[in-house]
UniProtKB/TrEMBL annotation:
Organism: Natronorubrum bangense JCM 10635
InterPro entries per UniProt: Dimeric_a/b-barrel, DUF7405, TAT_signal
Superkingdom: Archaea
Protein name, entry field: Tat pathway signal protein
Taxonomic lineage of the native organism: Archaea, Methanobacteriati, Methanobacteriota, Stenosarchaea group, Halobacteria
Length: 419
């Protein structure tokens, strides 16, 4: 990808595009654009950071209703091991990750990150993963998809409100930037991991960001100005997300870890906005009753800390389907356990490949939880036309990956059974 033409984009859009391009040239363009931004420094003692890599919620900002506001910019770095893990490469990786923690505050204003490992990574060890970890190989989960699967070793998820931070952290990790926010990079990942450029994924989330992408073909002008997600509505309400406690593995050597699923998909946004009316979009995304009772508002502003799916609305899923249209969230909510959602969704929009898409990143106790929720969301059991089955007919899944996010203490090239 070449650098975007600065004169044709707003500053915010230019910075977002630089994240998608990546690399040293994009970073230097980004730094000259972001001179005035002050990034808070990291910690002198990384061992004081949370034991769970995904302990982000306590530090993230909240919106006016008190829901967690995810960082705006995201990069997923697909990594392949250069050689088999050794004590030396473990130390090198740990030192490189601690450099990030010393450089940037653990916050959306600084940098939040995780490293996760695929089932393919763990296959190299004689021992199997302990029973307390549910991490199968990723497979197709619906009859209409034929996804590629993440078979490389690891993924680093970098997230920040500042595009310069995610770009700079990535370049620092790969030996292309010798100072990060005033901290010298003495150790990087060169020789431990290779970056798989063709698998690099990027994205953004936040009110107003999707509407800034109407220059991308297949992103229609009708994306609402204030929507944080491409499909036009708020998502991730406090009461419909699993807590970090709930997704945590409590037993065995990986206690304090969790599992992550990444489902990448293309979105048919033009049809979504141009074929359907706003009430129909509400029906398909939330539930028919949400539209009939005008519960949502333009982009979800009427909903506060919950998506409004009561037990009655969830129980009405089959009947709504038979009557003609069923909601995406309504179907997915059938997989709640004792009223609690099993997934902690940290998904984001993308224009990777210059077309609109979505990286659905979810944390859960085990991958079987994800599969169960995805089956409920797919709703193959429901008696309804495909076009009216939630948002299924607008999503085209192209990749799936399963990961273990070990606790921080085991994040550097863990053995399959550290005990
Ligand atoms: C383009 C893709 C997607 C969009 C735009 C989207 C959007 C939404 C929205 C607006 C809600 C209601 C608000 C909220 O509770 O946060 C929701 C709920 C939900 N979605 Fe999605 N979603 C997408 C894909 C997925 C996928 C792939 C899954 C996988 C299982 C999923 C699972 C859920 C769940 C579990 C809920 C909450 C259900 C509950 O309340 O218990 N979504 N989604």
């Amino acid at each position: 990808m070449t650098l975007p033409d600065r004169s044709e984009l707003s500053r915010r859009e230019y910075l977002r595009t630089l994240v998608a391009v990546g690399g040293a040239t994009a970073l230097s363009a980004c730094l000259s654009e972001s001179n005035a931004v002050d990034i808070p420094a990291g910690t002198d003692d990384p061992s004081t950071l949370p034991a769970r890599q995904y302990a982000w919620n306590d530090t993230l900002l909240r919106d006016d209703d008190g829901n967690v506001k995810p960082p705006e910019h995201h990069v997923l770095l697909a990594l392949s091991l250069v050689d088999e893990p050794t004590d030396g490469s473990r130390t090198q990786l740990e030192d490189a990750l601690e450099t990030l923690e010393r450089a940037y505050e653990w916050s959306n204003d600084g940098l939040l990150f995780t490293i996760g490992y695929t089932p393919a990574y763990f296959e190299r060890f004689d021992d199997a993963l302990p029973e307390s970890v549910d991490l199968p190989e990723p497979t197709a989960l619906t009859s209409s998809e034929d996804p590629a699967v993440d078979e490389f070793d690891a993924v680093v998820h970098l997230a920040s409100d500042h595009s310069q931070v995610v770009l700079e952290a990535e370049e620092g990790l790969f030996g292309n930037h010798d100072e990060l926010n005033g901290v010298a990079v003495e150790t990087d990942l060169t020789g431990v991991f290779e970056r798989l450029e063709d698998q690099r994924r990027t994205g953004f989330v936040g009110a107003g960001l999707p509407a800034e992408h109407t220059d991308v073909s297949d992103v229609p002008d009708s994306v609402p100005e204030d929507a944080p997600f491409f499909m036009g509505f708020r998502s991730g309400f406090e009461r419909n997300q699993a807590t970090e406690d709930r997704v945590t593995i409590e037993e065995g050597p990986f206690a304090g870890g969790t599992t992550q699923h990444i489902e990448s998909m293309d979105l048919q946004l033009r049809t979504w906005f141009e074929q359907d009316s706003h009430p129909m979009r509400v029906r398909k995304l939330f539930s028919p009753e949400h539209a009939d009772e005008d519960l949502v508002g333009d982009v979800g502003e009427k909903l506060t800390t919950t998506n409004g799916l009561t037990d009655e609305r969830i129980d009405a899923t089959e009947a709504d389907a038979r009557r003609g249209v069923v909601g995406h969230a309504q179907k997915a909510a059938r997989a709640r356990v004792d009223g609690e959602p099993p997934l902690l969704r940290r998904d984001f929009n993308t224009v990777d490949g210059d077309s609109p898409g979505f990286h659905f990143l979810a944390l859960q106790h085990g991958i079987d939880d994800f599969i169960r929720v995805r089956e409920a969301m797919t709703g193959a059991d429901l008696d309804v036309m495909h076009a009216n089955n939630g948002i299924l007919s607008y999503l085209f899944v192209n990749r799936r990956g399963n990961y273990l996010l070990p606790p921080r203490s085991l994040r550097a090239l863990p053995r399959a059974n550290p005990q």
